[in-house]
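Example record

The entry below shows one chain as it appears in the dataset: sequence first, then C-alpha cells.
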Amino acid sequence: QVQLVESGGGLVDTGGSLRLSCAASGSFFSINKMSWYRQAPGKQRELVAAITSGGITNYADFVKGRFTISRDNAQNTTNLQMHSLSPEDTAVYYCNAEARKTVWSPAIFNYWGQGTQVTVSS
C-alpha cells in the first residue's frame, strides 16, 4: 500500500503563487508515475501535471508555462510549483501515484491522496 499526503494548499490572491507537496510512504517496490489532478466544484477531476520516475513531464494545456512539477525519487516526493494563479485554478488538488507493490509482479496500482484545497481570490 502507498499512502500519499499532500500539503501546501491555501488561499492566495490572483497572480500569486503556491507550492504543493506530496509525500509517498508505505510498502511498495517502486513508484512509476506521480501526478497532480484537480477537481473544482461541479466539475470532473482533471489531470494537471505528471512526472515519470525518469523525469519526463506532461502538463495540461491550461497550466503550461505557469506550473512546474518536480520529483525526488529518493524521497518519494513530488512538488507542484504554481505561478500566475487565477480564480479558475481554484480546486481541490490531488496527488496520484502509480506504483508496483513488489519486485515479483509488474502489476501497477493507483493511489490517491486526500487532496488539498487551493483557493484563488479575485
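Notes for this example: The mean pLDDT is 96. The chain has no helices and eleven strands.
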